[in-house]
Amino acid sequence: LPSWFSVTSAAGAQVREMHSAGSLSYSRTFKIVVVGDSGVGKTSLTYCFCTGQWPSATQTTIGVDFRERVLDIDGEKIKVQLWDTAGQERFRKSMVQHYYRDAHAAVFVYDVSDVASFRSLPVWLEECRQNSLGPDTPRVLIGNKVDLLPSVTAASVMEQARHLAEVHGMPFHLCSARGGGGERVDAIFTALAVQLKRQGCGRGRRVAGRAEDSVVLLSHPLCDVIILLGTFWVFLLLEMF
Ligand SMILES: Nc1nc2c(ncn2[C@@H]2O[C@H](COP(=O)(O)OP(=O)(O)OP(=O)(O)O)[C@@H](O)[C@H]2O)c(=O)[nH]1
């Protein structure tokens, strides 16, 4: 298979999709946090978008997992970095603020076959808001696992989800990370990346009181990863003793 192919996204931008992000150069990074209850499919969705494949098996995320993919949007190579955060409270704890730090967008996921995961959404929205990802930040609501048989409850919850998304000014999408749902998953994350590019996101991040050029190293996404992993291990050691 070629490492890229051209598509025109729903937003009308010319997007070349590149799955093998590892060695590709890029001019900026979009950090997108993916949140929602445990088991709603965050790992599956992010894996699906970044590899073009359905994961044969997933494990509960501890802390956070990172997945990346480089997209060529209107001739500019942009790294889309997805932060697949743990849904279980005990695996998040003190790391929450690092998830949200300098994020450009948030994706909220619920499972259409699990009403409780929908009822939790206000908590996730509030957590985002408290970490500076309020209404001005591009946000998307995803109802995942539509491949599971829709029940009457699921249909009524879908209506409520549509309403919730409208109230919070974010698009609402239904999709499935399983089987043939990949194209839809692709379209959702790609459209979000196109929106972030149009808003001029990711052109170097600011640190109070410093010129942007001098903080390029400090604001490198790797710094987030190092801080996060450091915090995680300290937290684990404290739990053990
Ligand atoms: N039928 C179906 N199952 C799915 C779908 N997406 C995920 N799953 C399954 O749901 C289970 C949980 O998926 P994960 O992707 O690990 O969920 P998560 O939100 O990352 O969970 P945490 O890491 O605990 O926060 C796994 O068994 C997946 O195979 C989907 O679209 N349809």
Automatic annotation (TrEMBL):
<protein>
    <recommendedName>
        <fullName>RAB33B, member RAS oncogene family a</fullName>
    </recommendedName>
</protein>
<keyword id="KW-0547">Nucleotide-binding</keyword>
<dbReference type="InterPro" id="IPR001806">
    <property type="entry name" value="Small_GTPase"/>
</dbReference>
<keyword id="KW-0472">Membrane</keyword>
<dbReference type="Pfam" id="PF00071">
    <property type="entry name" value="Ras"/>
</dbReference>
<keyword id="KW-1133">Transmembrane helix</keyword>
<keyword id="KW-0812">Transmembrane</keyword>
<keyword id="KW-0342">GTP-binding</keyword>
<feature type="transmembrane region" description="Helical">
    <location>
        <begin position="215"/>
        <end position="238"/>
    </location>
</feature>
<comment type="similarity">
    <text>Belongs to the small GTPase superfamily. Rab family.</text>
</comment>
<dbReference type="InterPro" id="IPR027417">
    <property type="entry name" value="P-loop_NTPase"/>
</dbReference>
<dbReference type="GO" id="GO:0003924">
    <property type="term" value="F:GTPase activity"/>
</dbReference>
<dbReference type="InterPro" id="IPR005225">
    <property type="entry name" value="Small_GTP-bd"/>
</dbReference>
<dbReference type="GO" id="GO:0005525">
    <property type="term" value="F:GTP binding"/>
</dbReference>
